[in-house]
Design a protein that fits this description.
595 residues; alpha/beta; Alkaline Phosphatase, subunit A; 2 domains; eleven-stranded mixed β-sheet; four-stranded antiparallel β-sheet; 30% helix; 15% strand
Length: 595
C-alpha cells in the first residue's frame, strides 16, 4: 500500500522527537522564581528558611554559585532567559524617561516574533510545550482583545497564567468613581461643562436652535466631559510617569488569568493562585508523561513578588512573616512538581532547571513597615540595581538524574542566557539552524555549559556585559583563576546602605543623580578574591592597568559591533494601556479548559 502524505508526516514527526540512537529526547522542566534572593534558600546558606524541596534539587544535581541574570528586573531578564540574548539587542529594556518593563497586558511592546526562544526550538523538535504562571513578555493583543496569544507565538502550545505580573494594586478595593471637587482640574472640568450648557440654553433663540438640537449638543458636551474625567482620573498622561494608570485600572485591566487567549479570571484572586498554577502543571505532566513525544514545561511562579499572599494552610509557618511564608509556599510548589515527575517515573528522563529571574527586592516594605523583600546574602544591591552583585547573582540548579552528577557546586560564572544552548546540548538536539532553518540567524550571547554540568573541563575565558536598563554599567571577565568585574557606571547608594530607601515600589534608577559615571578610571574588582566587592584593585597597579585596558577595548569593540535599537517602551502608543486592545471577560469560566 502506498503511504499517504499524512502517514509520512506522522512518521517524520515521530522521528524528530527521538535522538540519533532512537531514544526519546528528555523532557524539560524550567522553574522560575520571581524576585527570589540568593540568600533565601537553605542550599545557598540560609539555615533559617525552610526550603527542603529546592535544597533536595541541589543535593541531586548541580548548584551554580556564580549564576548571573542578564538584567535586574523582570521583563528583560526573562526575555534573555528564553532567547539566550541580551534584551538590549531587541529593545526590550527601558531607557531614560521610560518604564523598565512591560507595564500593561494590552501594551504592544513585546518579545519580537523574530527572536528564537527555547519554546520555539523545542516545538520544532516536536516537543509538547506549555508556559504556566507569569509571562510578562507581551501578549500581542489585537482589536477588542482578540488574539492575545503571546506565549503561543513563541513556541508554547499551551498557556495558563498571568499575562502580566503581580502589582500591589491587585489587593484591596479601589474606587472607580472619583471626583474630588477640591481639585483644580475637576473644578475646571465641571465649570466648563456648566458654562457651556448654560450658554447653549441662554443663546438658543438667538442661534435659532431647536430643543432637540440643544439636547444633542448637551449630550455631546457630557460625553466630552465624561471622557475627560476618565482620562484624567484613570490615566497618568499629565505626570512624569505617563505610562501609569489608576489602582482600579491596574487591578481590573492587568489582573488577569488567561488560558490560551481566553480570560479565566478578571480580576484574579490571589488566594490559592500558586496552587492553581501548580495544579495546571501537574495536570500537564500527567497528561503527557507517557506520550511518544517529550514535553517542555516552563513554570514561572508568581512568588515571591509583591504583594505577599499565601494560602491559609501555608500562612504563619516561617520565621520571616509573609515573605518567609511565600518562599516556603513556593518551595512546596516545587516539591509538588518534583513529586509528579517521580510518580510518573520521569526523573531519569527529565532535565530540571530552577532559577530566580534576578535578585531580591531589598527596599520592599508593606504598609505595616514589615520587610517583604528578598535577601541577597552579603552581596551588595538587589532588584533594579543594574550591575550590583546582589541584583544579578541568582540561584541556579540543574538536575538530570543519572546524567548530571549529584551534590556538585560549580563556582565558575554562568548565565541565565546559557539555558537555550545548554538544554539543546544536554538533550543532544540539532543546532538552531537545523531546527528552525527559516528563522533569521541570531547571535546567541549565552553558551552551552553542558560539559561543565556533566563534569567536564572548565570553560574558556568569557566576557559578560551588565546592563542597567539600556545603559552598560559593568563588564565581567572570567579568566582562569580570576573573575574581574569593571564598573564604568555605578549606583550611588545612601551612605551606610546598599539600597535606595524603603517602599513597596522603591527601586534605584539607572539614570540621573543616583548613578555615577566613572569616566576614564573605572572601578575594578577581582571577585575570585573579593566576592562582595569590598576592596577595589588600586588604579596604580600593573594588574589594574592591564586588565582595565583589555576590558575597555572589549567594551569599545562591543559598542561598535552591536548597535542597540531604541527602547520599545519609548513609543508611547506601544506602551500605554490600550483600551481598544484590552481583553475582557464578562462571564469568566474559571474552570481550566482541557488541553
Amino acid at each position: 500500500m502506498k503511504p499517504t502524505p499524512f502517514f509520512l508526516a506522522g512518521f517524520l514527526l515521530t522521528v524528530t522527537a527521538r535522538g540519533h540512537d532512537g531514544s526519546k529526547y528528555p523532557n524539560v522542566v524550567v522553574l522560575v522564581a520571581d524576585d527570589l534572593g540568593i540568600g533565601d534558600l537553605g542550599c545557598y546558606g540560609n539555615h533559617t528558611m525552610n526550603t527542603p524541596n529546592i535544597d533536595r534539587l541541589a543535593l541531586e544535581g548541580v548548584r551554580l554559585t556564580h549564576h548571573l541574570a542578564a538584567a535586574s528586573i523582570c521583563t528583560p531578564s526573562r526575555a534573555a532567559l528564553l532567547t539566550g540574548r541580551y534584551p538590549a539587542r531587541f529593545g526590550l529594556v527601558g531607557e531614560e524617561g521610560t518604564p523598565p518593563v512591560i507595564v500593561h497586558v494590552s501594551s504592544q511592546a513585546s518579545l519580537p516574533l523574530t527572536e528564537i526562544t527555547l519554546g520555539k526550538a523545542l516545538e520544532a523538535a516536536n516537543y509538547t510545550t506549555a508556559a504556566v504562571g507569569k509571562w510578562h513578555l507581551g501578549m500581542n493583543c489585537g482589536l477588542l482583545g482578540r488574539g492575545c496569544d503571546g506565549p503561543q507565538r513563541h513556541g508554547f502550545q499551551n498557556f495558563y497564567g498571568m499575562p502580566f505580573t503581580l502589582v500591589q494594586e491587585f489587593i484591596g478595593s479601589h474606587p472607580f468613581w472619583i471626583f474630588d471637587i477640591s481639585h483644580p482640574v475637576y473644578q475646571a472640568m465641571l465649570g466648563t461643562w456648566l458654562v457651556s450648557a448654560l450658554t447653549l440654553f441662554t443663546l438658543r433663540r438667538r442661534l435659532g436652535f431647536r430643543w432637540h438640537s440643544i439636547l444633542l449638543l448637551v449630550v455631546s458636551l457630557s460625553i466630552i466631559f465624561i471622557l475627560s474625567w476618565f482620562v484624567f482620573t484613570h490615566f497618568r498622561f499629565h505626570t512624569q510617569k505617563w505610562w501609569k494608570v489608576s489602582p482600579w485600572m491596574d487591578k481590573f485591566m492587568n489582573g488577569l488569568i488567561m488560558h490560551n487567549g481566553q480570560v479565566m479570571e478578571q480580576p484574579l484572586e490571589l488566594d490559592g493562585l500558586m496552587q492553581k498554577f501548580v495544579n495546571y502543571s501537574l495536570k500537564f505532566i500527567a497528561e503527557h508523561a507517557h506520550d511518544d513525544r517529550p514535553f517542555f514545561l516552563y513554570h514561572s511562579f508568581g512568588h515571591v513578588h509583591t504583594p505577599m499572599f499565601t494560602h491559609p494552610s501555608m500562612a504563619g509557618r516561617s520565621k520571616y512573616g509573609s515573605y518567609g511564608d511565600n518562599v516556603e509556599e513556593m518551595d512546596a510548589g516545587v516539591g509538588a512538581i518534583m513529586a509528579a515527575l517521580e510518580e510518573h517515573n520521569l526523573e531519569d528522563s527529565t532535565i530540571v532547571y530552577f532559577l530566580s529571574d534576578h535578585g531580591g527586592h531589598l527596599e520592599c516594605v508593606d504598609s505595616q513597615g514589615h520587610r517583604v523583600g528578598g535577601h541577597n546574602g552579603r552581596y551588595k544591591g538587589g532588584k533594579g540595581h543594574g550591575a550590583s552583585e546582589g541584583a544579578i547573582r541568582v540561584p541556579g540548579i540543574y538536575r538530570w538524574k543519572g546524567r548530571i552528577p549529584p551534590s556538585v557546586s560549580i563556582h565558575e560564572p554562568t548565565s541565565l542566557m546559557d539555558m537555550l544552548p545548554t538544554i539543546l546540548d544536554l538533550a543532544n538536539l540539532p543546532p538552531l539552524r537545523d531546527l528552525l532553518p527559516n528563522m533569521p540567524h541570531r547571535e546567541i550571547d549565552g553558551v552551552s555549559i553542558a560539559n561543565l554540568l556533566l563534569g567536564g573541563q572548565p570553560q574558556s575565558p568569557r566576557m559578560f556585559i551588565h546592563h542597567c536598563w539600556r545603559s552598560v554599567h559593568a563588564v565581567r571577565w572570567a579568566k582562569g583563576d580570576h573573575i574581574y568585574k569593571m564598573f564604568v557606571k555605578k549606583q550611588r547608594f545612601p551612605e551606610g546602605t546598599h539600597q535606595c530607601g524603603w517602599g513597596i515600589n522603591n527601586l534605584c534608577s539607572c539614570f540621573g543623580e543616583n548613578v555615577v559615571s566613572l569616566g576614564e578610571e573605572p572601578t575594578l574588582y577581582d571577585l575570585s578574591r573579593d566576592p562582595y566587592e569590598d576592596h577595589p584593585i588600586p588604579s596604580d597597579t600593573e594588574e589594574y592597568k592591564e586588565v582595565v585596558a583589555y576590558m575597555k577595548d572589549y567594551l569599545q569593540d562591543w559598542k561598535r559591533r552591536v548597535l542597540y535599537p531604541a527602547s520599545q517602551f519609548s513609543t508611547k502608543l506601544n506602551t500605554i494601556l490600550s483600551l481598544w486592545r484590552q481583553p475582557f471577560c464578562w462571564d469568566c469560566p474559571k474552570e481550566i479548559i482541557s488541553h
